Amino acid sequence: MTVHAGDSLPDIALKTLSEGLQTHFASSLFAGQKVVVFGVPGAFTPTCSARHLPGFVDHLAEFSELGVQVFCMAVNDPFVMQAWGREQKVPPALQLVSDGNAELTRYWGLELDASASGMGTRCRRFAMYIEHRVIKHVAIEEPGQFEVSSAEAMLAWLKR
Predict the structure, then answer these.
(1) Is 72 a catalytic residue?
(2) pTM for the structure as a whole
């Protein structure tokens, strides 16, 4: 399967470390709200740390003004995601979630084989807008690109 606008969210578990190790199902974590989820190949990786995550941090107030919650997802364990969030000074309003076993990534058809770099299965860079558990817009980057999944691109889509 490849993710498309109109798809509903599955009951696949994601992990956070907000108050101890927590399990959340995608279908309920993003329920009843407007959400932007952006996926990155990996915490602490160059483009993810220098541009992708910082862009969403910088524009978080604009998303909030639109009534949109922001989540960042990666195929990293929740402890790595928490450490990355601290290092990047991510405010609590931007939630970092772990798809550590790449279950949601695979379900959406967004897996990236980074074995040549010693990183195994990762998530392709993407951003999507979800409203009440239904995907309304999805922007998937070509390998090595960073254009359509930026905070600026998602804000432009939301404000169109």
Answers:
(1) no
(2) 0.94
- Given the residues 14, 40, 43, 48, select the one marked as catalytic: 48
Instruction: Tell the CATH superfamily of the 13-158 domain.
Output: Glutaredoxin (3.40.30.10)
CA distances (Å), 47 to each of 87, 130, 155, in order?
Answer: 15, 24, 19
Taking only the tens of pLDDT, the chain with its 160 residues reads 689 998 999 999 999 987 889 999 998 888 889 999 999 999 999 999 999 999 999 999 999 999 999 999 999 999 999 999 999 999 999 999 999 999 999 999 999 998 888 888 999 999 999 998 899 999 999 988 999 999 999 999 999 9
Which string of b and e fits 19-54 if b means at least 16 CB within 10 Å? eeeeebebeebbeeebbbbbbbbbbebebbbeebbe
Q: Which of 87, 13, 92, 14 is nearest to 50 (CA)?
A: 87
What residues does each domain of the chain span?
Answer: 13-158
